[in-house]
Amino acid sequence: MNNDDDVLGIDLDAWQAPPVPSGIADAVIARMRQETTTVTTPAVPVEPERAPTRRWWIGGAALVVAAAGAALVAFGMTRPPADGRGNIVAEQPAHLALGPSAAELDRGTAVSWRRERYRITAQQAGGAATWRVDDDDTLTIETALGSIEATNASLRVEVKMLDEKKPIVLGAVTAAAVALVTVVVYKGTVKATHDGTTTQVLPGTAYQIKAKGENVFEEQMTVGAAPSPELIARIATLEDQLAQKQAELDELKSKGVDPFETSADPVPDGLDRAEISRVLHGLAGKLRACADGYDGKVIVSVRVNPDGSVGDVTTSPADAKPSKCIADAIRAARFAKTKHGGKFRYPLVFTASDATAAESPPPKDCDPVKPKQEGLEAFARHQNKDALASFEKAYMCKSDANTLKLMFASACKLKDLAKARSYWKRLPQSMKDTLIQFCVREGITSDQLDGP
Amino acid sequence: MPAALAIRTEPLDELTLRRAQRGDDRAWRELVERYQAPVHALVWRLLAGRSRHRVEDLVQETFVRVLRALPSWDIGGPASLQTWILTIATRLSLNELRKPEMTTIIGDPPSTESTDAASERARVGAAIAAGVAALPDAQRAVFVLREYHELEYADIAEALGLDLGTVKSRLARARAALRARLVAQLPELWRRR
């Protein structure tokens, strides 16, 4: 610690870095040797950071450069990066420079690529890579299970093999050898295409393509990035809209109308997210009754037959109090007919408040929609006190995880440890990894949240 | 100060350095092993509370860039090798912090010592970690380079591409913010003073 003017008056050495992991020198030397033999990444000189400055003449120079650039673009004089192609099986983590775009390859990742002007086509046979795609470039990543297209984006693609011990060989991987492709999008908009279906994958979400025949269920899930208030608000609105549509569907069904049963509609190949969501939402009342005060998560794995009947249900943990009741409820459910049926896993999160809510339902005129909307508006304006009050009001009418996470985020932003802790304990574990950052940014640690 | 002494590394001898410049594997290894502790500590602290899973990657990346650029590095120049390497590590870490990528919060490992003193030290360490993590990236870089790596103001200014006055003001703001936070979190520590 430097003590030249010890203004802190505290032993800063109490914050010790952990020991250095072993093998760094080996890895560095291997990368250097790999670069000089197989990888064609050019040496990148370290450029000085562009320090922010208030001097007008630098701004002026930048404007001149920008204007010159714009003029070049206008006259079609921009030069695309050089065309080229190559391939690599990364024996160590490796950096792959593709002009203004790049990829960070994990150890064992096999990639071949081709650049033609601004279009990069890559084949990721196996392994995991983080891709950064420049805004001028369009990257298409072909995998054995589907393709991913991105521009001006940052994303991670993981290709998981059925037999992970088998070395990956470029050009020899077939769909039969691949178990799962996961796409995690950090920035930009990315499209995933498989079996003729294209899905837009938004930032902060992940998308999975599983091997056909084994499982066709796909879902978007929250990943570890801290979502912005705007994104949280947008997701909350969409979830509300989904819930509203679900209620309309339920009402139609209660009148004997099944909007899914139309002879004109072809039978889909397999289960989709909407169908799974429809059936499980329809079971929500029964499942909540199964909880009977249980506080925790039960993951159900369900196999659905082509005729829509449930073939098999397993629960994890199998010995949780409500597991048998849940399995029975799902076994009795009926899904839409499909050509191949399918399998899916679904986490059911029960909190003590579920039981309480079931025992003492809110008043009939209680409206969760308006206060929640007001809360979202306040949250987006960073008026966190008003937001929290509105979310709490909405939660009293309808105790759902979506509102709970908004309450938690607002409490964190208000630095209200007591409330944040209370909501934290009720949040599903799957949300905690993402949401904790709202509190950490305000100086509240996970230890404090987990504390009594 | 034990940590500071551990981080200050004996400079690499000129012969080894020249061999490393020519691409000698053994010299490369010696260089990496000589400076990996301060680089690892620096990156780990700069990413405090964020992207911890990337620390090892960034340490590797630092040395890859050092070895790539080493042939053109001026042995007789004014900058010390350690300062130059720390500069590269700092810039890579700051670039990493600017990325809109997944961040992972991983708590510091709890102390296995059971004495009161050890426990208090662990608590102080955790409070410092949280305080440094909460500093803006630009202030944190200045603070860590100065307090934990004893870089001169001029070296920090050069490493971060700032002028001297900015370095001093950022350091003062970082210290003030950290002090305020520690006083709030560990009031008993100040009462005992």
What's this entry about, in short?
The complex is a heterodimer of chains A (452) and B (193). With 452 residues, chain A is α+β, with helices and mostly antiparallel strands.
Q: What is the general shape of chain A?
A: globular
**From N to C, what is the helix and strand string of chain B?**
HHHHHHHHHH
Chain oligomer state = heterodimer
User: What fraction strand of chain A?
Assistant: 25-35%
- Global Rg of chain B: 18 Å
**Largest sheet descriptor of chain B:** none
Of all chain pairs, the largest interface belongs to:
A-B, 56 and 66 residues
Number of strands of chain B: 0
CATH homologous group name of chain B: RNA polymerase sigma factor, region 2, helix turn helix motif
Average of per-residue pLDDT values of chain B? 80
What Rg of chain A do the Cα atoms give? 26 Å
Low-pLDDT sequence parts of chain B: 1-7, 101-114
Secondary structure tally: strands of chain A: 14
- Low-confidence stretches of chain A are 2-6, 37-78, 213-227, 353-361
Total separate domains of chain B = 1
Overall pLDDT confidence of chain A: 72
Q: Could you describe the largest sheet of chain A, including whether it forms a barrel?
A: 11 strands, mixed
**Alpha-carbon distance between the termini of chain B?**
20 Å
Features:
heterodimer, A: 452 residues, alpha+beta, 11-stranded mixed β-sheet, 3-stranded antiparallel β-sheet, 13 helices, 35% helix, 25% strand, disordered N terminus, B: 193 residues, mainly alpha, Rna Polymerase Sigma Factor, Chain: A, 10 helices, 69% helix, elongated
Structural summary, described in words:
The complex is a heterodimer of chains A (452) and B (193). With 452 residues, chain A is an alpha+beta fold. Chain A has 13 helices and 14 strands. In chain A, the strands form two sheets. In chain A, strands 1, 2, 3, 4, 5, 6, 7, 8, 9, 10 and 11 form an eleven-stranded mixed β-sheet that branches. A three-stranded antiparallel β-sheet of chain A has the order 13-12-14. The two termini of chain A are 35 Å apart. With 193 residues, chain B is mostly helical. Chain B has one domain: RNA polymerase sigma factor, region 2, helix turn helix motif (Rna Polymerase Sigma Factor, Chain: A, Orthogonal Bundle), CATH 1.10.1740.10. Helices cover 69% and strands 0% of the residues of chain B. Chain B is built from ten helices and no strands. Chain B is elongated. The N terminus of chain B is likely disordered. Classes of the chains: A alpha+beta (452), B mainly alpha (193). Chains A and B meet through α1, β8 and α12 of A and α1, α3, α4, α5 and α6 of B.
